[in-house]
Amino acid sequence: MLAGTNQRKRVLSGMRPTGKLHLGNYVGALDNWVRMQDKYDCFFFIADWHALTTDYADTSGIKRNSLEVALDWLAAGLDPERCTMFIQSHVPQHAELHLLFSMITPLGWLERVPTYKEQRDNIKEKDLGTYGFLGYPLLQSADILIYKGDFVPVGDDQVPHVELTREVARRFNSFYPKPHSNFYKKQQPVFPEPQPLLTPSPRLPGTDGRKMSKSYGNTILLTDPEPVVRQKLKTMVTDPKRIRRSDAGDPDVCPVGDLHKLFSDAATMSKVNEGCRSAGIGCIECKGWAADALVQILNPIQERRKKYESNPRLAWDILEAGCVRARAVADATMQDVRNAMLISLDYEPPQSPEDK
Fold first, then answer.
1. Which of these, 10, 98, 179, 273, could form a disulfide with 142 (CB 3.0-4.6 Å)?
2. pLDDT tens-digit profile of 68-97?
3. Does any domain span residue 209?
4. What's the domain range around 280?
């Protein structure tokens, strides 16, 4: 399994367990992860502890949602022979490293993370005045550095989180190891400074024209059967200036046009551009073509999912096997960390002058 991956650069990324994934998750991350498997040593984790930073009051759905995410990962093409998939909370070293990082990280570093203030301002229905919410970017840093990741695939909005991780790694390396420790003889820092791996994140509109998101109720799920996909697209908003069938439209300002750009072939795009701009086609016909393209993408994903849906234990066993490998890698890192900080259980302190 994963033979030869130690020669590859390591990539680390994760998703919160929000349940079944939608096309926005696929376009924004999952499809890219699938392509990364043959180029990088990939670690992908279900971030169930991160779910607690905002949904700590009700944990009843976390385990089921974690399984749904795993089923969609496998259906989309993540392969346990080519990547490591695991659940964050099943690798307790994440929590230990997070604790040690919290001892050295200035409070101001966490308060200035853009998404911290943004979510505090936008999520009014929940009490986010907790240490867990303030510290979740530091937990992300531990998630990355516990595997000594070289790259983190992110969109532009997540780059500040990677920069925080780099700062934490730099600060730790400046403190530890001390020159008098045996570990210091390695003459290398404990942690690398990971780089953001900017991934194309095209705008994927939901059925109401806003960004596709479960919180908006405008998603197309990877598990939606063909009739549901077609029905959802029938209600999708279009170019607001195209009021009548005889009005010319503009695919560049139409959410359905955005779907075509992502999923339709060149021949269909040509028909869309010509027909919409000349009012030669109606929106219903255009939406039907978009549905055709989506169904072609979703059908093979849904067929692969059936294998695991019929026997969910298979997916859970894959996650558990991934956890075993992840724990081995994480434990090796923690041995380095404890040695560098002179808190290893098998550490023997140097003799003082009085003992000589």
1. 98
2. 999 999 999 999 999 999 999 999 999 999
3. no
4. 214-306
pLDDT of residue 1: 47
| Domain total of the chain | 2
Q: What percent of the chain has pLDDT over 70?
A: 92
- Concatenate the DSSP letters of all residues of 32-100 into one string: HHHHHTTTSEEEEEE-HHHHHHHHTT--TTHHHHHHHHHHHHHHHT--TTTEEEEEGGG-THHHHHHHH
- Does one domain contain both 292 and 220? yes
Q: Is 270 helix (H, G, I), strand (E, B) or coil?
A: helix
Q: What is the CATH number of the domain that holds 327?
A: 3.40.50.620
Contact residues for 257 (Cβ-Cβ < 8 A; gap 6+): 239, 250, 251, 272, 276
- Looking at residue 137, its pLDDT comes to 94
Q: Is 209 left (phi over 0), alpha (psi -120 to 50) or beta?
A: left
- Same domain for 61 and 183, yes or no, is yes
What's the pTM? 0.90
DSSP 30: I
CA atoms within 13 A on the CB side of 285: 11
Give pLDDT, residue 349.
60
